[in-house]
Amino acid sequence: MRIRIDHETRYHYDAPVRAVSQILRLTPRPHDGQHIVHWRVDVDVDGRLRETEDAFGNIVHRLAADGPLETMTLTVTGEVETTDTVGVITGLPEPLAPQVFLRDTPLTEPNAALCAFARDTVRGTDDRLEQLHRLLSALHAEVTYDTRSTTSATSAIDAFTQKHGICQDLSHIFIACARHIGIPARYVSGHLARSDGVIEQEASHAWAEALVPGLGWVGFDVTHDACPGERHVRIACGFDYLSAAPVRGSRIGGGAERLSVRLAVAQQPMMQRQSTGFAQNQSRQIQR
Amino acid sequence: MTAAFDEMFGEAGAAIEGALPRKAYAALDKWMKAAPPEFFDARRRQAELFFRRIGITFAVYGEAESHERLIPFDIVPRIISGKEWKTIEAGLTQRAAVLNAFLADVYGPGECVKAGIIPAELVYGNAGYRVEMTRVRPPHDIFVHILGADLVRVGEDKFYVLEDNARTPSGVSYMLENREVMMRLFPELFARHRVAPVETYPDSLLATLRSVTPYASDQDPTAVVLTPGPYNSAFYEHSFLADKMGVELVEGSDLFVQDARVFMRTTEGPRRVDVIYRRVDDDFLDPLTFKPESALGVPGLMAAYEAGTVTIVNAVGAGVADDKAVYTYMPELVKFYTGQDAILPNVPTWRCREPDALAYVLDHLPELVVKEVNGSGGYGMLVGPTASKSEIDVFAHKLRKDPQGFIAQPTLALSTCPTFTEKGLAPRHVDLRPFVLTGADKVRVTPGGLTRVALTEGSLVVNSSQGGGTKDTWVLDE
Predict the structure, then answer these.
(1) Closest to A233 in 3D by CA, of A30, A8, A23, A7
(2) B56 touches chain A (CB under 8 A)
(3) Paired residues of B444 in beta bridges
(4) A4, A168, B161, B218: least surrounded by Cβ within 10 Å?
């Protein structure tokens, strides 16, 4: 499937900013199920944008810009061609020992209730893949998808306690459970081309990957009770939301900041000209 | 428990009337016996006065009467013979080299894991293991520039390493001040002993910092001390060391990163910084990489570190080396990296993750101290000799349920040293924290260290936060 992504992040500062420094994890890496047709990250202010890698093997950009700035816009445009690999991720560099993905972080630390839930769910099977699929379905049923009850700082424990959350929370809970039963697990940020044809989205997507003996890393999308397939575009991975975050930054000056995000993820049927045209209109709109 | 080894009177312990002092203490013993008791009372009051004056230096930086910060000082020195020190020095040098080799290995090829010396999950699953360091090669491959090892003594020739402090070991300012006060109080005692100097520590530290400057730097490197600020409990030491070395004391907001280089804001404009002696924990060093809410660090510092333009002392990620679980593998790691046995052994430790060890520990709980490997659980530890039958039973259940989470050690009879108490001179338990500096040019071990003393009778807890005091530590030049 060919997927086009137009992602714009606009910052409005109440007072002029003297300097901005950011780390961007906005660029996908190719793997066996994902070919990058083209991709571009841009910023509308004078500054330095340097591409490098992080410890997880993600492609990152370091952005440094000097003010005074009243607004700043990050624009990401690209096209990716995906194939369904039933969630199995191969062809990625794996620079870290898998055991690093066994450690707890503040966002993925389990409590007694989470541990009990994980153990009860996998009771009766030693097969790792089966255990993970049980966790996937059980969590999908247990925790309700709800965009109003959590924030980006909500931990797995809090989300599991209130039984509500978004894809980020569902992924954190899944990761906490998998690590508790001894399976290395990591957080993945990415995009999803929706099957209902809706293109404009409020936020990007997230899921989890777990290490299965014999298979390697396998994706689990709790939000959809499925393994990621050709509608998923994988951007970056980390211990949790924080270490895979699309943008981390700091700035000097600027007072309060307002953020507006526009995201369009569009399926590009390769044969149909009309749809392609639509997406281009879309992107022109965003770049206006 | 048998009587503890006494630093002054040896294996016989301090209790025996008319016991002869060990050789290193002979001159001190003679001198102390000759002095009238009022003399020591007067000197103790003077010592208190000196430290209070130093305490006033404290108050300048934002605190009114910092009485609670005065750590009790005992005027009886702890003396280590030249011969004893030779062994300790060799052991510490070996230990520092192995810790550095271990860190370079686990952030690089991981040979110790591949060879099966230490389990992978203990290293890579450790919260102190910073994945960012797999992309950083610290200048000169040195990770632990400053090591503070905690040693305990249980016999004439028996020193054990209780723990390694490979992150930001503190306490060196007390070592230096204790010596200064002692020299003022008892010049005649120093005339009778050849005490190796510790006053050279700041010079040694500066030489070490300058030696580890990044390869790409200019001839004359700039070093700074990075502090979390005046509200940190060790701020006094930070300012003290910066002052003694003659380098700038900075906070995170005084530094900035541009084009992967670190600069310091000065009245004459930005000045390039080559070496940062940081007293800020990893978590707070760079909000772009670690805790995002940290205001103590320098945004982008890790980018400069990765680019190799700055040296951070001690290196980021050194914490994996002083972890409690990793500690238990130090004897094997010493053998693996040096081919030799550890000169300073570990306290014998049973790893409950190993079935044989677990069986032994369960059989001997009333004699052992059982500690949790991950402090985070906070379920405390079991001190067998003082625990009740039911406490031991509860703990045995916990141990069987989660053997990986625990290690056990014998209850050690820490050596004692004569100490002034309210009832006069009496033996009190002590430990020793010496400091090892590893530079690109050489290793510098300051002869001495910080002797901590448990002031309560029978107590083994020497921590200053729990009523411990300090003593001057003399290494005799023989």
Answers:
(1) A30
(2) no
(3) B437
(4) B218
Same domain? For A64 and A35 the reply is yes
B266 inside 8 A of chain A by CB = no
Residue by residue, pLDDT tens for chain A (288 residues) are: 999 999 999 999 999 999 999 999 999 999 999 999 999 999 999 999 999 999 999 999 999 998 899 999 999 999 999 999 999 999 999 999 999 999 999 999 999 999 999 999 999 999 999 999 999 999 999 998 888 888 888 999 999 999 999 999 999 999 999 999 999 999 999 999 999 989 999 889 999 999 999 999 999 999 999 999 999 999 999 999 999 999 999 988 888 889 999 999 999 876 544 444 444 433 333 332
Q: How far is A248 from chain B (nearest CA, A)?
A: 6
**Spatial contact of B67 and B461, defined as CB atoms under 8 Å apart:** no
Q: Give the closest of B126, B131, B287 to A250, CB-based.
A: B287
| pTM summary value | 0.91
Whether A53 has its CB under 8 Å from any CB of chain B: the answer is yes
Same domain, A99 and A200: yes
> How many domains is chain B partitioned into structurally?
1
ipTM of the complex: 0.88
Residue with tokens 């807890």: B461
For chain B, give the number of residues: 478
CB contact under 8 A, B288 and A22: yes
CATH of the domain at A66: 2.60.40.2250
Supply the range of the domain harboring residue B403: 350-410
Distance from CA of A245 to the nearest CA of B (A): 10
Buried b (16+ CB within 10 A) or exposed e, B249-284: bbbbebbbbeebbbbbeeeeeeeebbbbbbbbbbeb
Phi and psi torsions of B160, nearest 5°: -120, 150
Residues A276 and A228 both lie in one domain: no
Q: Are B398 and B361 in contact (CB under 8 A)?
A: no
What CATH number is given to the structural domain containing B368? 3.30.1490.270
Joined together, the tokens standing for residue B18 give: 């008319």
The answer to whether the beta carbons of residues B123 and B135 sit under 8 Å apart is: no
Q: What Cα–Cα distance (Å) separates residue A166 from each residue in A108, A120, A230, A267?
A: 15, 23, 21, 23
| Mutate which: A21, A63, A101, A237, vs B, most B CBs within 10 A | A21
Asked if A250's CB is within 8 angstroms of B299's CB, the reply is yes
User: Residue A194 belongs to what domain range?
Assistant: 88-243
Q: Which residue of A has its CA nearest to B136?
A: A55
* Same-domain pairing of A110 and A229: yes
